[in-house]
Amino acid sequence: MQHDISKLRGQVQQISLSQKVTEAKMDDIKKGVEDKMNGMEAKMDGVEATMDSIEVNIEYLKKYMEGLNGSLEKLLREMLPNGEKVVEETHDEKKKC
């Protein structure tokens, strides 16, 4: 009976050690997953910041284009005679009207 008890104790100790090793491996896996998740969050924050920057640049470009359109409009008004339409006529004798 002592032998059986000793044998059972040995098996219990092996199971206990095996559980500790398994828990340690699981902790390592959990830590690895958490690290990867944190890395992904950091990348997403970077992407979000880039998108915000792009939105700011687009808004700037829109305002710049509006200003450019206004400047072109003003320039064209200054170059063209007031209220007159500029039409260039060509006289081509070969064409029959």
Q: Would you summarize the structure shown here?
A:
By secondary structure, the protein is mostly helical.
Task: Summarize the structure in words.
This protein has 97 residues and is mainly α. The protein has one helix and no strands. The longest helix has 78 residues, at 2-79. The mean pLDDT is 88.
What's the end-to-end separation, in Å? 127 Å
Element order, helices and strands?
Answer: H
Q: Could you list the spans in which at least 5 consecutive residues all have pLDDT below 50?
A: none
Rg, nearest Å = 40 Å
Helix count, DSSP H or I runs of 4 or more residues: 1
The percent range for strand residues is: under 5%
Q: Can you give keywords for this protein?
A:
97 residues, mainly alpha, 1 helix, 0% strand
Topology:
Blueprint: H1 2-79
